[in-house]
UniProtKB/TrEMBL annotation, chain A:
Residues 81-294 form the ABC transmembrane type-1 domain. SUPFAM superfamilies: MetI-like (SSF161098). InterPro entries: MetI-like, MetI-like_sf, UgpAE/MalFG_permease. Keywords: Cell membrane, Membrane, Plasmid, Transmembrane, Transmembrane helix, Transport. It comes from Streptomyces fungicidicus. It comes from the Bacteria. GO terms for cellular component: plasma membrane. It is a multi-pass membrane protein. Its main location: membrane. This is ABC transporter permease. Gene3D superfamilies: MetI-like. It is found in: Cell membrane. GO terms for biological process: transmembrane transport.
TrEMBL record, chain B:
This is Sugar ABC transporter permease. Pfam families: BPD_transp_1 (PF00528). Residues 1-20 are annotated as: Disordered. The keyword Metal-binding does not apply. Signal peptide: none annotated.
Length: 308, 301
């Protein structure tokens, strides 16, 4: 040891903090500061005196909870939340169901073409949400779509996929298409980590592949399912680019279709930053409550399972 | 059938699952899984196949011929796209590449520093710092993006390249992945041995630990590259000058104009095809060097 011990230990003590400086600075500047600023804005409002002309006619004043009560009684925001709820009820179960199904199939014995199909199903992950919405948008357009072409030739009725109830399916399909592959990889990785002895034991017990899947594989990948569920809920609450992209193709996607679109509309369309900040804070709170509530419930279940 | 009961059973001699099967039975193809996966692949490839074919059609063919029949207009579409507003399309592609490459590089560096520090050192506030960084994942982007816009406006940085680049450098998921890789790939004794040899902490990191973390960091880079390339919301909020648009925003505005003039549809479709192409190609090339498993944070130790 050439170096005096004191200097070395001093260097070691300071080192982790030095390594963490860039991340901490960026976090403070681009995460903490904006969040704090948004919360601050949500408690403020613009008071216009007189006709709103001249210096001092518009001033920012404390608003208390006014923006929040406004947001909570805003029917557009509520309707947007309900739409996203309906959309999420389709996307999350279908996407994770398919991801689990494909992961189990990939993991089964004697399956052919597994590397090819694995890559093909993962491929949409590389396609930007905007481009995915654009591709499917054209496939939903009666003039361009192959599906309508086939329906037309067969003399079958041609539903309008970009209106009413089918619009939910159309939008959900884009999310399912884009997200299944990523979730499949997460679940598949967890399946590969199950020790081989477990399967051998199941085989000795005479378990069929279906029984093995239901009673061993699925319970053992439960933590991955919880994780993918968690990320899917967050992504669903934040849906923005897909409906925004479909908007030019149909009249039935409103500028306030999802809560985030409503926030964007209020902030940049109407220029009411304060109302937008209050709505954004409410959405962030809802996200936190939902995700932590879900994680706690999942944890409690895991503990019960472990205790059994 | 509970798992404790299973563990009591005698482990087989071979560890690979196939070894216990009879050699004759291995050749049989499992029809149900294979067909299910092929259907899944078909579903995932269909829109991509469609856009490849649709980009070869002229404007008239797009609305008149069967959609999966190639057309004759690819060269025309390409030159139309080239000519559109003096080739602004290629400018968008260039911008996307710039945002994604530079952003992902910086992001990987920051993730590597943080992940290494969080995995290797024991220090006060370690878990708190990690959890606070991770909580960033939960923040809806629009909630960040609006105040980010207002703050950057105060600094006179909105509508600049920096306004899209800077907010995307710190990636909570990247830090999380880097921490897992560092914990798995950098043994504590190696770091300790470096210290015994009198190497400084930075030297140990850059000469010893960093090379060990490379496979994981490639994953972080690709993950961030895709995330930035695919990002729409942040540039949508930050930028108004379409010379600085990334490809996602460019295609979106093109589609918005195309809704009024269907003649632009062929441009949008050709543009979408060319925008999908680089990332798909990138994936096919790097999949040799890149294990998909790493994306889920799974590390073989």
């Amino acid at each position: 040891m050439k170096l005096p011990a004191r200097r070395t230990s001093h260097g070691v003590k300071g080192a982790p903090y030095t390594f963490l400086i860039p991340a901490t600075l960026l976090f403070l500047l681009f995460f903490a500061l904006p969040i704090g600023y948004a919360v601050w804005l949500s408690f403020r409002k613009v008071r216009v005196s007189g006709l709103g002309l001249g210096a001092g006619a518009r001033e920012e004043v404390w608003a208390g909870l006014e923006n929040y009560t406004g947001a909570l009684s805003d029917s557009e925001l509520l309707n947007g939340a309900l739409r996203v709820l309906g959309y999420g009820c389709i996307v999350v179960p279908v996407m994770l169901g398919l991801a689990l199904l494909f992961a189990l199939m990939l993991d089964s014995e004697k399956v052919r073409l597994a590397p090819f199909t694995r890559l093909a199903i993962f491929l949409p992950y590389a396609v930007p949400g905007v481009v995915a919405a654009l591709l499917w948008g054209f496939l939903y357009l009666p003039d361009v779509s192959p599906f309508y072409f086939v329906l037309d030739r067969l003399g079958l009725p041609q539903p309008d996929l970009l209106d009413g109830g089918p619009l939910y399916l159309a939008l959900s399909n884009i999310a399912v298409w884009g997200g299944t592959g990523f979730n499949m990889i997460v679940i598949y990785t967890a399946l590969r980590a199950i020790p081989a002895e477990v399967y051998e034991a199941a085989k000795l017990d005479g378990a069929t592949p279906l029984q093995t899947a239901l009673r061993i594989k699925i319970p053992m990948v439960a933590p991955s399912l919880v994780l993918t569920f968690f990320f899917s809920i967050i992504a669903t609450l934040q849906v923005f680019s897909e409906p925004t992209t479909l908007k030019p193709l149909t009249n039935s996607v409103a500028t306030t279709w999802s809560p985030l679109m409503k926030v964007y509309q209020d902030a940049f369309g109407k220029g009411d930053i304060h109302a937008a900040a209050a709505q954004a804070t409410l959405i962030a709170l809802a996200t936190l409550v939902l995700s932590f509530g879900f994680l706690r419930a999942a944890n409690r279940r895991n503990k019960q399972e472990a205790a059994r | 059938m509970s798992s404790p009961a299973l563990r009591k059973a005698e482990p087989p001699a071979g560890t690979a699952r196939e070894t216990a099967l009879g050699p004759g039975r291995r050749r049989r193809i499992a029809m149900v899984p294979t067909v299910t996966l092929l259907l899944g692949a078909l579903y995932c490839l269909l829109p991509v196949a469609w856009v490849v074919i649709a980009s070869t059609k002229s404007g008239a063919e797009l609305f008149s011929t069967f959609t999966f029949w190639p057309g004759t207009g690819f060269a025309d579409n390409l030159s139309d796209l080239n000519a559109y507003r003096d080739g602004v399309y290629w400018r968008w592609m260039g911008n996307s590449a710039l945002y994604a490459v530079l952003g992902a590089l910086l992001s990987t560096c920051v993730s590597a520093f943080s992940g290494y520090a969080l995995a290797v050192y024991r220090f006060r506030g370690r878990e708190t710092l990690f959890n606070v960084l991770l909580a960033g994942v939960l923040m809806p982007p629009v909630i960040l993006a609006i105040p980010q816009y207002l703050l950057l406006a105060q600094a006179d940085l909105t509508d600049s390249y920096l306004s899209v680049l800077l907010p995307q450098i710190l990636s909570p998921y990247g830090v999380y992945l880097a921490r897992i890789y560092a914990a798995a790939a950098v043994p504590a004794d190696v770091v300790e041995a470096g210290r015994m040899d009198g190497a400084g902490e930075w030297r140990i990191f850059s000469r010893v630990a960093l090379p060990m973390m490379v496979p994981g960091l490639v994953t972080v880079f690709l993950f961030q590259f895709v995330a930035i390339w695919n990002n729409f919301l942040l540039p949508y909020i930050m930028l108004s000058d379409d010379e600085k648009f990334p490809i996602t925003l460019g295609l979106h505005t093109l589609l918005e104009q195309g809704a009024n003039t269907p003649a632009l549809y062929t441009l949008v479709i050709t543009g979408a095809f060319l925008a999908v192409f680089p990332l798909v190609a990138l994936f096919l090339v790097v999949q040799r060097f890149w294990s998909l498993d790493l994306l889920s944070g799974a590390v073989k130790s």
